[in-house]
Amino acid sequence: MTATIIDGKARALRLRETVAAGVAAFVAAHGRAPGLTVVLVGEDPASAVYVRSKGLATAAAGMVSGEHRLPVTTSEAELLALVAALNADATVDGILVQLPLPRHIDTDRVIAAIDPAKDVDGFHPVNAGRLATGLDALVPCTPSGCLMMIEEALGDISGREALVIGRSNIVGKPMAALLTARSATVTLAHSRTRDLAGHVARAEIVVAAVGIPDLVKGAWVRPGACVIDVGMNRVALADGKSKLVGDVEYAAASERAGWITPVPGGVGPMTIACLLANTLKAARMRAA
Ligand code: NAD
Hints:
The protein has 288 residues and is of the alpha/beta class. The N and C termini lie far apart (49 Å). A hairpin with a 5-residue loop joins strand 9 and strand 10 (242-245). The chain is globular. The longest helix has 23 residues, at 8-30. It has helices spanning 8-30, 45-60, 76-88, 107-113, 125-132, 141-154, 172-181, 196-202, 250-254, 267-287; strands at residues 4-5, 35-41, 64-70, 94-97, 161-165, 185-189, 205-208, 226-229, 233-236, 242-245, 259-260. The chain has ten helices and eleven strands. A six-stranded parallel beta sheet has the order 1-11-8-7-5-6, sandwiched between helices. A three-stranded parallel beta sheet has the order 3-2-4, sandwiched between helices. It has a two-stranded antiparallel sheet with strand order 9-10. Residues 142, 165-168, 170-172, 189-191, 193, 196, 209-212, 215, 230-233, 267-268, 271 line the site of nicotinamide-adenine-dinucleotide.
């Protein structure tokens, strides 16, 4: 079997068009555009690239894009004061504090300070709890995008065997919650899991979110499975250049899977599109 490649770029473009139409309707109804403000502390080059592309995508969708770039020396109290000001700003519907934060700042405290109604990353404990208990929530962007791609490939996933590899709060755990809410039979694997190969071999849906290049071997993949590769790992090449690879042995897995996401061009573009969708959702919720 040769897998169908899930084109995350094309799917994200469609979602961005839907969001832009929703934004236009919001502007017509409320006389203002939804606003997303991104806060970046420090000079991490990868974070700076993400923040820039989030800002461009926000503006392209017709929303108001705000940005605060703070020096790495910013104290936790200063950052909390900025978050409080954004919470109180009626023109701001979504607040995103780019992670990772410098080590002298308590990330959990900052996330908990964001108004849950403006928490477009879906990381606030209130949103995590709402997702876990089946209530409507602002859901983390990466797993939201993964679920859309899975359902487009497979349709109804009720009763399907799903394996999520990685149990982070931003990808693995919310992914498992979303799949559970869709009535899949979910296994959550992590660094202490024994026999990862055996779990992969049983899974009709595999979501790999670990950060280890080629951790999931192609030969493990169940024939016909839907494989979603969240991993983004930069590996050095012999010629001194580097390239981005996922957590799945892509070429070998493509020979067995039914559907597979490439890296890059799979999950990544969907994450930003889902951030825009969350911002529109937050604006609608606040306006209601
Ligand atoms: P994390 O480091 O917070 O979590 C990694 C998880 O992998 C942990 O729960 C750990 O238990 C598990 N793990 C480690 N070794 C393992 C092993 N040998 N077997 C099974 N599980 C193991 O990472 P994260 O923030 O969840 O990100 C995971 C990957 O996804 C990274 O490569 C990251 O860059 C990427 N990512 C991509 C996007 C995107 O938009 N494409 C978004 C977020 C994260």
